[in-house]
Design brief:
about 160 residues; Small Protein B, Chain: A; seven-stranded antiparallel beta sheet; about 35% helix
Amino acid sequence: MAEAAIKILSQNKKARHDYFITETLEAGIELFGTEVKSMRAGRVNLTDSYATVRGGEVFVNGMNISPYEKGNIFNRDPLRPKKLLLHKKEIRKLIGLTAQDGYSLIPLSVYFKGSLVKVSLGVCKGKKLYDKREDIARRDSKRSMDRAFKEHNNRA
């Protein structure tokens, strides 16, 4: 069976900077027609979005899907909570993981998988300032080592 083509619509790059991602999970999302059309135009923003579990269901809050220009009366509120489509077993697992102190659910990316809209959801723990500095220092040292190896190989 052929794999469905994946087209990334939006990524939450700030989440990878601000959180340690311990686990990821793929979920469907419940949308209306004009929201899907707006997403096809690339008008979605994940900045400052998060997910919550309420009443045995998972909702994404703060995901901004801009109104579709030609949608007139069918447009929905851009910041309305959007329901994620998960199995009960997955929701119970998420409840257990987020019950731990300091863990939260953060949408990492939104993408089309074939014709379906999917959300990559991460179980994340917040980074402290010194963790962020450590990551930056590690990235800088790796970059300088790569540069030195490249210069050495060019001379040979």
